[in-house]
Amino acid sequence: MLLQSPKAAILPIASVAEPGFRFAEIIDAEALARDLAALAGKAPGDGAPAAVRDRVLALLKERIAIGRKAAETMLFDDGSGLLCAARLSALQDEVIRAVYRFALEHVFVAANLSTGERMSVIAVGGYGRGTLAPGSDIDLLFLLPYKQTVLGEQLVEYLLYLLWDLGFKVGHATRSVEECVRLAGEDFTIRTALLERRLIVGEPQLFAELSARFDKEVVEGTGQEFIAAKLAERDVRHTKSGDTRYLVEPNVKEGKGGLRDLNTLFWIAKYHYRVETSEQLVAAGVFSRREARLFHKAEDFLWAVRCQMHFLTGKAEERLSFDLQPEIAARLGYNAHPGMKDVERFMKHYFLIAKDVGDLTGIFCAALEEEQAKDVPGLKGFVRGLRHRAKKIPGTLDFHIDNNRINVTARDVFQKDPVNLLRIFKLAAALNLEYHPDALKLIRRSLRLVNAELRDNPEANSLFLDVLTDRTDPELHLRRMNEAGVLGRFIPEFGRIVAMMQFNMYHHYTVDEHLLRSIAILSRIERGELLDDHPASSDLVKTLNDRVPLYVALLLHDIAKGRPEDHSVAGARIARTLCPRLGLDERQTDLVVWLVEDHLVMSMTAQQRDLNDRKTILDFADKVQTLERLKLLTILTVCDIRAVGPGVWNGWKGQLIRNLYYETEPVITGGFSQSSRKQRFTQARAHLAERLSDWPEAERDAYIDLHYQNYFLTVPLEEQRRHADFIRKASAGGDPLATMVLTDAFQAITEITILAPDHPRLLSMIAGGCAATGANIADAQIFTMTDGRALDIVTINREFQSDDDERRRAERIGRHIRDLLQGRQHMPDMMAQRKVGRGAKMFAVRPRVFIDNALSNQFTVVEVEGLDRPGLLSDLTGALSDLSLDIRSAHIATYGERAVDVFYVTDLTGMKIVSPSRTERIESRLTSVFDSPEGEISSRGTMPSPQAFGIPAK
């Protein structure tokens, strides 16, 4: 028999005993036993010398490879991840049985075992549940009746060493029944592993004894503490993985909405309800049949993804990274649709499954909480029952408060009045309530009531707008509305972007998650919780006459993602239709339409244009036109960038946006501003002087005069003080070249500040020094000082978790830069030694070079867009220097894998580039940077000598 019985490998929700579940095609256990016996010799007792063991090992490797290949082929055929996991588990079972019996019969010749020598080999953990991925650990318990015997020790050692030599990662323990029971009572990890025990081979009575004692002495009466431990463990795991199921590179096993969450439900169900299958969960009233089917579907899909990942990579890879996603999508048979790549369709399916897992977890945990609230005994339970009993909600007979959650009073409240599908969220928001699981279940079962008639209902739309603009926590209630399926039905355009992933390295979340997070940030700004992070937005939001258009615009600004046309234009068209339906008047609708269509304008202007160029401000003001638009766009831009993901927002971007606002405000208002540019420059100098009050007055004044106006208006005061101390120390030491490092674990960035004599190739050399270590420059600021020195600040993406490790890396980069500038190393040699990372090679970004003389009255603006890589900035700036162009300012922006670098340049005489032939040469040369292998451009041109930088050669 290939498996003890189908029931021996019962899966959490589905039995493996169904049509198409084939073990014989994975491994022929009887043939394997015969072939192993033949290797041992004609008669038992001939022994198994080293040569025989090698042949045994070779035979097992061959059969395992054949079995795994068969499992992979069947996964392609039937697409069932659960069946694949069960087949791999069955293959592992048969290997362990074969080796165990071979060792007993042919190695140690121990056919008649004494009572003390009998043992059970038990699968525990995930393996005990009868599911394995190709790279899964094999968790084994060698169960003894008493203490270990010589034969038992030899058997365990033989089996383990053979499994290790076969390439398996084996977790194991050798314990008696007594030890198992005692340790399980003390340790929840051991208890959980034993909960999923399954006999593979050995003594059945010993296994039965463990099962009986475990149930009676460990499980019985301890359900509540086990549930609390597992849920606390889950919360810690979620926090470590980002506490969202919508990360665009999710962990299929450990991430929120992944397999471990389903495992947690299974552990709790098995422990608390004593169930093994979905049918039993339905019978217990925890899940409906639909929800049980959803559980099975989610588990089957996640196992398919996980098994395909392991097969593809040849290792236990659990993170569904960008480079794996296209290949897994192809393996699972996804195709591209207009506006969506095949990989984006696959990832949307993944996130919808993760959402289902979250919904099921919420239903399950809420049901447990309700049950616990009802079951508390004695006076404590009576008092708790009084506190949590159902309370009426004034003004409605359809809903009441049940255990501090809003619940329905009857099963037909939505059928009787479909508007209640919106009203329940409005009431929950107004009363600051969570949602009862029974209410959520009924909402999901009533989604067909969200039809065209309800969408056009004025009261329903008014209720929705109330939830969206709730002053306490609109995100919570919109999120519950989205999870229940109402939001996507009520606004079908939103339903199209639910769980939609954008296949790029910039956006960290799905589109709907990004929109909800942006609303959460706006709500926090409005409540004054982000005053330190966003002082300008926190002040501006208090001056708004109408906050409704801002909330609606945030909800809609990316709603048209995944369409063939520009999402801003398509989104504006959606807003034009939707806003009147929601009850907005013509003025509000026009505002929302404009905000959606131009929601990227401020971000792009702030990060990619020179804000010290008057033409930039005038062009932006002409686009915005009114002060109301400027205020709304400023706040929307902050919320949008903050909601992209961790590390995307930083203080420098905030400063740029504030500067753009303050420069534009007087242009729009006809000269009136709370703070003119000249005033802010004067104030910034005064503030720095105050911060340097511990310096001698003459030295302080001389230092402040080193910086031009744009430095004071761009750099935050705290950084100005750091720079002052840095420059003072470097000047005192007489070193013409100095570097400073600042790590930021929260933002996941590291800042390197370089002080050096100015030179046209300085930025290129700095970028080359970063590229030589594989560092990716996310941002760069360039400041020229009045004494001819340059202060360049580059921000690189963080590589190490430890600050000490990251600081050492940054200091190594600083040494590379110094070596380049001092002539001790040459760029081609340094680039040849660089560490090449994963990069963004799985992405495609068409190179684009745009040269414009209309964006500035003084400079030619060269905008370069293309696939980012280490060394790109060095190559671009080097190419510009080779073209005899003087870079007057550079604006470096990185959006994941896409780099958008903007350079304000002149020729060497200080004039714009107006010759068409020269413009064509610039375009051709910069485009060739993307066509050439990494580092090739860096080696071209004449490298300046150290003396060119004013640095002595060493």
UniProtKB/TrEMBL annotation:
Residues 751-833, 861-938 form the ACT domain. Its cofactor is Mg(2+). It holds the Pfam family ACT. GO terms for biological process: regulation of nitrogen utilization. It catalyses: [protein-PII]-L-tyrosine + UTP = [protein-PII]-uridylyl-L-tyrosine + diphosphate; [protein-PII]-uridylyl-L-tyrosine + H2O = [protein-PII]-L-tyrosine + UMP + H(+). It comes from the Bacteria. Residues 1-394 are annotated as: Uridylyltransferase. Its EC number is 2.7.7.59, 3.1.4.-. The keyword Transferase applies. InterPro entries: ACT-like_dom_sf, ACT_dom, HD/PDEase_dom, HD_domain, NT_sf, PII_UdlTrfase/GS_AdlTrfase, Polymerase_NTP_transf_dom, UTase/UR. Residues 929-954 are annotated as: Disordered. One of its GO terms (molecular function) is phosphoric diester hydrolase activity. Residues 511-627 form the HD domain. Keywords: Hydrolase, Magnesium, Multifunctional enzyme, Nucleotidyltransferase, Repeat, Transferase. Has four distinct domains: an N-terminal nucleotidyltransferase (NT) domain responsible for UTase activity, a central HD domain that encodes UR activity, and two C-terminal ACT domains that seem to have a role in glutamine sensing. HAMAP family: PII_uridylyl_transf. Modifies, by uridylylation and deuridylylation, the PII regulatory proteins (GlnB and homologs), in response to the nitrogen status of the cell that GlnD senses through the glutamine level. Under low glutamine levels, catalyzes the conversion of the PII proteins and UTP to PII-UMP and PPi, while under higher glutamine levels, GlnD hydrolyzes PII-UMP to PII and UMP (deuridylylation). Thus, controls uridylylation state and activity of the PII proteins, and plays an important role in the regulation of nitrogen metabolism. Belongs to the GlnD family. This is Bifunctional uridylyltransferase/uridylyl-removing enzyme. The gene is glnD.
